[in-house]
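Table S2 (continued). Query chain:
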Amino acid sequence: MLLYMNDYYYYTIICPFIKDTDRVICRRDERRFIALKSKRKRLINAFIYLHQGSPCGRYCICGYFDTPSVLEIYNKEYGLEPL
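Corresponding output:
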């Protein structure tokens, strides 16, 4: 992929000072920031994180947590602010 000079300055100098939730999605490989801005998608990611990417088993721990607790754990793990 060819980076232009403006991209270089944006990604090396400016991006470290912008929170991930405030960044503008400029390229295709930055689509992961969409989930940080949407409550529904962040909730889905939180439940995936809780399950460690595998489906529920017979003795799954997800039944012991309510939705706000799952979101709190996810936000704390990744240093995100609540929406």
